[in-house]
Amino acid sequence: MAFVDYEKAFDSILHKAVFEALKQHSIEEKYINILKETYDGGTAHVRNESLTRKIKIKKGVRQGDTLSSLMFTAGLEEIFRRMEATGGININGERMNNLRFADDIILFAEKEEDPSKLLNNLNKVGRNDGMKMNKKKTKIMCNEIARKRRRKGIIVDGEQLEEVDEYKYLGRLLTPGNEMAKEIDERVTSAWKRFGQYSRFLRDQKMPMCLKRKIMNTKKTVHFYF
Hints:
By secondary structure, this protein is α+β, with helices and mostly antiparallel strands. It has two domains: about 1-45 and about 55-180, 2-Layer Sandwich (Alpha-Beta Plaits); about 180-225. The protein has nine helices and 13 strands. The protein has helices at about 10, 15-25, 30-40, 70-80, 115-130, 145-150, 180-195, 200, 210-225, and strands spanning about 1-5, 45, 55, 90, 95, 100, 105, 140, 155, 160, 160-165, 165-170, 170-175. Strands 6-7-1-8-11 form a five-stranded mixed beta sheet. Strands 2-3 form a two-stranded antiparallel ribbon. A hairpin with a 2-residue loop joins β6 (about 100) and β7. α2 packs antiparallel against α3 (about 30-40), α2 (about 15-25) crosses α4 and α7 (about 180-195) runs antiparallel to α9 (about 210-225). The protein is globular and about 60 Å long.
């Protein structure tokens, strides 16, 4: 597996790439034009000792806009569609080579040479749309069999990627053997820390039991399960 990290992903994707992706996703042109109007003409200044001249903004989706995550996802989907479909794992007869949640990306491969092909292909295609892979934060994880077979590390743009034995993805600690002991310990510790923050309320004998249960369910229990 490869855990891909992009440098400032939401701030880097090119506007033209996003609008082209929306077009490829069959979004009506009138809606795309409305979005273009909200993005076209955007400028910024940089203040040092004085203000610089206007700098035209040609990339990045707007923070706080409810449409931004959808626009970014459409742009990223188009990048993956243009990738060469190599590697992947077999799940019920279907090949799957990636798993994505916004800019949190995992690439899957079975053969030794596939991770390098996938990563370099993704890096090349993404760079055309303004996406720059962060090689220092992009990590590789493989099982013991693959580790013994592999003859060399995985290199992207001349930089070797770090191999790790564990990685936290969407709050879940992943390991090659899917061991759960450390993950459970971390969740228990997190839940007790949250309990400590509300302990004075939970120990207050004047507080109704129904409110104590609500605090437990919304604070401590949630931290344990999620």
